[in-house]
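Q: How would the structure tokens look for this protein?
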Amino acid sequence: MNQPLSYVHPDAKIAKTVVIEPFSTIDKNVVIGEGTWIGSNVTILEGARIGKNCSIFPGAVISGVPQDLKFNGEDTTAEIGDNTVIRECVTINRGTSDRNKTVIGKNCLIMAYSHIAHDCQLGDNCIFSNNSTLAGHVTVGDHVTLAGMVAVHQFCRIGRHSFIAGGSLVRKDIPPYVKAAREPLSYVGINSVGLRRRGFDATTIKSIQNIYRILFQKKHNNTQAISIIEAEVEATKERDEILSFIQNSQRGIMKGYFQN
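A: Here is the predicted structure in token form.
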């Protein structure tokens, strides 16, 4: 249902049950799935692919041209998964030739004034609190929570089930299952509350704690810590995920426990 004061390009593909409130603009080459609500004063530009049952609040700008001087008008997209909520004044830029798309997963909550730059890839069930900002090419796993005003450097990776404290500056990769805080950003424990909420049992949580104790609290370098973990910690999918993440880090991982 389109309000008469909204503008929808005739080439846009809008499901019949989509609600578009007054003063919103939908450009060409846009696809919006069933049950999605578009609030007033929303701008959805060329290349947007929005899933089912999403909510996009006033002032948001979806699929804006990348803020990247290398962008040359290539055909790219910004994709938002089903059941995701985009709050007021969020900006999400479409991709460049590097990845060709920016992706927000399913069941995410992106709170007011957050910015997601070109070529970022977010998993499912992520929560970004107000004013969280991702530079270009950032990769974020499932169930990641950013507290307010977190800023992430380009090309960083953030592992699944991690939590980053408000006001943090993320310059290095953040491994899975951890809490990160302080300045410079450091390991401050595992995200045990989040893991329990998502059904991880006590044995698994203890194993993850042991892995990070070896990695971050025993004064080993990363190579030594990985060797010890491989030798002493029982192989599980969580252990192997952590080791793979560290071994494949291009920017290096954040600091260990930081003593003032």
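Residues 169 and 184 are 8 Å apart (CA to CA).

The two ends are 57 Å apart (CA to CA).

Upvote if useful.
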